[in-house]
Design goal:
5-stranded parallel sheet; Cobalt-precorrin-4 Transmethylase, domain 1; 3 domains; 4-stranded parallel sheet; Rossmann fold
C-alpha cells in the first residue's frame, strides 16, 4: 500500500477533474481537523498537567501530529515508547490509539497511575475483538502493519486475529472454519480501499461476518468525503497533517483517486513548494483529524500572500459529536470540586 506521498508531483490516471474557475481561489474543506477523539485526548493531557502538575508521561504520541506533540512537551508532557521508561509510581496516559491488555498489566506491575485516553471508537473495536474471540471466530483485522491502533487491537485477542493489510493480502489469509469469520478494521483507513479489501475477503469467504456498525470512524469518513468534493474542482490539494498520521496520508490518496492533478501532505506552510502552484487556479485545502486549525490558518496566510486570497468553504457534513474526558480524570476533578465546595 502507498505510504507517505512522494515529494514529487503525483498525478491521477485521468489527469484531473474539470476546472470551473479562472480566478485564483482556495476551496476549504468542512469538516476538517480535530475529531472528537483527538480533542478529548489533547484536552486530557492538558487537564492532567493542570490537575497533577508536570511531568505527565504519555505512552506514544497522544495523537499523530508533530505540532501538537511539541506543544504538549513544552507544557510538561513526556512521551515515551515503552512503559518501562516511566518511573515507578508516576502517572502515565495511554494515547488515543489504544493499547493492548499487556500494557495495562505492565503499568500495574510498575505501580503506575494510568489515564486511558483511548478514543471511544477505538475502544469499540477492542470490545468487538474480545466478543468475537470469546465466540471463537477468526478475526480478520484490516489495517496497516505496525500502526499503534492495530497493535493495540491485535493484543486483545492475539490467538484469533490476523492482519489483512489491503486487498493484496487476501490471497494469504487462511482460517480454521469458513463459517466463523468476521472482519474488523482500523478506524483511520480509506473507506474505498477498505471496502475493496472486504469485497475480496467476501469472495474468498462467502459467510464473512461484518461488524455490527462501521469501524472506520465518522470523522475519517467525513474528511474523505470532503476531500473528494474538493478534488472535483481543485488542480492541487494540500492536506495539512504529519507523515505518521494514517488518516492524513489516506486523504492524499483519496484526493488523487478523486481527480486532483496533485496532492501533498505538509505539517506546516513552510513545507509548501511554490512550484506546486504553477498553472494552478484552484487549491483545495483540508487537514487530518489530529491537526489544530492554527496550522490550516498558517497555510491560508501563505496562500493569500501568493494571490490565493479568495477562500470558499466547501461543507459536506455537520459534526457535533463530543466525548467526555477519561473516567480517571473525571473522578479526580469531581473529587477536587467536592473538596473545594466543602471548604
Amino acid at each position: 500500500m502507498t505510504a507517505t506521498p512522494s515529494p514529487s508531483p503525483a498525478t491521477t490516471p485521468s489527469g484531473g477533474a474539470t476546472r470551473r474557475s479562472n480566478t485564483r481561489r482556495v476551496l476549504l474543506a468542512a469538516p476538517r481537523g480535530y475529531c472528537a477523539g483527538v480533542d478529548r485526548a489533547v484536552i486530557a493531557v492538558e487537564k492532567a498537567l493542570e490537575q497533577y502538575g508536570a511531568p505527565i508521561y504519555v505512552r506514544h504520541e497522544i495523537v499523530h501530529n508533530k505540532y501538537v506533540v511539541q506543544t504538549l512537551e513544552k507544557k510538561g508532557a513526556i512521551f515515551v515508547d515503552v512503559t518501562a521508561e516511566v518511573p515507578e509510581g508516576s502517572i502515565v496516559m495511554f494515547s488515543a490509539h489504544g493499547v493492548a491488555p499487556t500494557v495495562h498489566a505492565e503499568a500495574a506491575e510498575r505501580k503506575l497511575a494510568t489515564i486511558d485516553a483511548t478514543c471511544p471508537l477505538v475502544t469499540k473495536v477492542h470490545k468487538e475483538a474480545v466478543r468475537y474471540a470469546k465466540e471463537d471466530y477468526d478475526i480478520l483485522l484490516i489495517g496497516h502493519e505496525g500502526h499503534e491502533e492495530v497493535i493495540g487491537t491485535s493484543g486483545e485477542a492475539p490467538d484469533h486475529i490476523q492482519l489483512v493489510d489491503g486487498p493484496e493480502d487476501v490471497a494469504n489469509v487462511e482460517v480454521r472454519d469458513e463459517s466463523k469469520v468476521v472482519w474488523l478494521s482500523q478506524t483511520t483507513l480509506s473507506v474505498d480501499e477498505t471496502m475493496e479489501t472486504v469485497g475480496a475477503l467476501k469472495s474468498k469467504f462467502p459467510n464473512l461476518l461484518s461488524p455490527p456498525s462501521d469501524d472506520i470512524c465518522y470523522a475519517t469518513q467525513n474528511r474523505q468525503i470532503a476531500v473528494k468534493k474538493l478534488a472535483e474542482d481543485a488542480e492541487l490539494v494540500i492536506v495539512v497533517g504529519s507523515k505518521n498520521s494514517s488518516n492524513s496520508i489516506r486523504m492524499v490518496e483519496v484526493a488523487l483517486d478523486a481527480g486532483a492533478d496533485a496532492a501533498y501532505l505538509v505539517d506546516f506552510a513552510s513545507e509548501i513548494d511554490e512550484a506546486w502552484l504553477e498553472g494552478v487556479t484552484t487549491v483545495g485545502l483540508t487537514s487530518g483529524a489530529s491537526v489544530p486549525d492554527v496550522l490550516v490558518d498558517g497555510v491560508l496566510e501563505w496562500l493569500a500572500e501568493r494571490g490565493y486570497a479568495d477562500v470558499e468553504t466547501v461543507k459536506t457534513a455537520d459534526e457535533s459529536i463530543t466525548f467526555s474526558l477519561p473516567k480517571e480524570l473525571r473522578r479526580d476533578l469531581r473529587a477536587e470540586a467536592a473538596a473545594l465546595s466543602a471548604e
